[in-house]
Amino acid sequence: MLRLEGVGKRFGGLPALDDVAFTAPPGELTALIGPNGAGKSTLINCITGVLPASAGSIRFDGRELCGLPPHAVARLGIARTFQNLRLFPRLSVLDNVLTGLTAEAGRSMLMAMLRLPYLRHRERQLRLRALEALDRFGLAGKADWPAAALAYGDRKRVELARACVGRPRLILLDEPVAGLNEAETALIGQELRRLRAAGHTLLLVEHDMELVMSIADQVVVLDSGRCIARGTPDEVRKNPLVLEAYLGRTSVTA
Hints:
It contains ten helices and ten strands. By secondary structure, it is an alpha/beta fold.
């Protein structure tokens, strides 16, 4: 479903990504790991059109993504979360999730001004879908709360709900459990398993190795912008390059 070939990204002549290549098979969870500064978030931004790749090809279901703006990438069925939360703090939780349905809300300003019956019916449908997404993540009871009033763990789940509400085919998750406690991390892990079981393809950037090794079908390791290993969790766990470049002398499950 997602295929990267020779992807590179340079900032002022310095390489942030260099000849990155891997595939994310449909219906599987691919984990992207590596030390801070390895280029993981930069790669997510290149896939979603936030940053233009300097070289290489990024194809989704056979279509080239390089050169497409973020809204065009989203309309192909690709959603994402962010390493740093990107919620609208003054909007309600429900309205934040509704922003994940922007691509389906229509593009006609005339229809919006006339408030035609079809449009009102469509808005009700989208609202119900947003409420269903919140219910899936245990947040339906806080739908009317301002996002700023939520605890950090709940805000993380709101962002996940927003990424999932549009029923995307590919979801890119940038450190979804960063800053969460053990119980909150376990809850997010359960949700990721449910998403995969429902047929979503997931690309997960994460530092929590216990979570990664327990849920990933495939692990890709970046170091200094280059792909140094890829394989099953067991294969990566034993790879000497990973132990040296990413974890040093520490066990991969530590």
